[in-house]
């Protein structure tokens, strides 16, 4: 029970942006000794899940993300808000459940649950899938402790964080595939020819390799590049890593310069080093950091750096410093601070 209390504390910190989801999931292993775990957020726009944390194989993660919501048993659990443990499933429930057929049986789980998660307003926000090969008879206290955490796990999926960028409203994106363990990147489709030059210059293969080393897939990154910003969604495919790239606009709380400073913070650089990279004074760097902390609502530079790393800013290529244009709409964008 002590471990469950600690996980609750960490989860509330994560919900406010002061701790990482990885810390929450690591703590869960002390509450329920799982072999595999996935925490997935529901996307009402696409009517699919987005895997936030995954410790399982890509094929299993893809099933959870794209297919599990169509499982008849899971759909019923979502409607009734019923909690079901694997050891309590009837033969008929096992027969109709595609999760049992495609995940539980092949992986040899003895106990676990697919737990639908809801916001405090009652909205479905995601699902926790957790499984273990340990005998169910040894897990009674662990099951009870885990049920105490469903509400705070839901809170980590409903956290509101400031949007740094928004879609441009124009078709400025492309699809690409990066072959495993190579620098080879194949662009498969452009939404328009206007993004062809950006796609050619964007170091997607390097960013993808770095992301695979430091993150679980699928993942979405925000990458400042050439005075614009690229949103990159990465997922595994049978032939490598599939990347969906989209140019996005700066309509969030941060200016482009502040976003560049945040990227260098996420890389762990000091103010002096950031000043050298961006060719501005250390005092200006400090001012940008102060503004960033206020706009993001985080308490210190470490929290800001962690926030930037979660977005993927640490993977951005070193900036080519150039004058930053004034925003088109001053009411929505922050004017460039003078050097």
TrEMBL record:
SMART domains: HTH_LUXR
CDD domains: LuxR_C_like (cd06170)
Highest taxon of source: Bacteria
Protein name per UniProt: Putative transcriptional regulator
TM ranges: none
Keywords annotated in UniProt: DNA-binding, Transcription, Transcription regulation
Pfam family, one: GerE
């Amino acid at each position: 029970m002590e471990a469950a209390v600690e996980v609750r504390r960490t989860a509330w910190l994560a919900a406010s942006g002061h701790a990482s989801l990885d810390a929450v999931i690591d703590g869960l292993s002390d509450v329920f000794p799982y072999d595999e775990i996935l925490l997935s957020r529901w996307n009402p726009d696409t009517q699919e899940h987005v895997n936030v944390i995954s410790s399982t194989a890509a094929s299993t993660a893809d099933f959870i993300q794209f297919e599990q919501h169509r499982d008849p048993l899971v759909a019923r659990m979502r409607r009734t808000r019923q909690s079901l443990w694997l050891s309590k499933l009837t033969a008929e429930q096992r027969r109709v459940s595609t999760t049992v057929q495609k995940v539980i049986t092949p992986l040899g789980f003895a106990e676990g649950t697919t737990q639908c998660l809801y916001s405090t307003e009652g909205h479905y926000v995601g699902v926790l899938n957790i499984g273990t090969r340990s005998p169910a008879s040894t897990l009674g206290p662990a099951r009870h402790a885990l049920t105490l955490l469903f509400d705070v796990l839901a809170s980590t999926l409903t956290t509101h964080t400031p949007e740094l960028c928004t879609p441009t409203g124009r078709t400025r994106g492309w699809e690409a595939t990066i072959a495993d363990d190579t620098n080879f990147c194949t662009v498969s489709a452009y939404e328009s020819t206007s993004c062809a030059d950006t796609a050619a210059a964007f170091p997607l293969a390097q960013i993808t390799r770095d992301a695979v080393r430091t993150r679980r897939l699928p993942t979405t990154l925000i990458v400042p590049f050439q005075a614009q910003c690229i949103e990159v969604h990465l997922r595994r495919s049978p032939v490598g890593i599939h990347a969906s790239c989209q140019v996005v606009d700066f309509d969030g709380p941060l200016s482009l310069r502040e976003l560049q400073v945040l990227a260098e913070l996420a890389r762990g650089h000091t103010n002096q080093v950031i000043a050298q990279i961006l060719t501005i004074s250390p005092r200006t760097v400090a001012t940008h950091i102060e503004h960033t902390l206020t706009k993001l609502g985080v308490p210190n530079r470490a929290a800001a750096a962690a926030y930037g790393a979660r977005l993927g800013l640490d993977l951005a290529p070193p900036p080519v410093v150039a004058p930053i244009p004034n925003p088109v709409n001053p009411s929505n964008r922050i004017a460039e601070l003078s050097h």
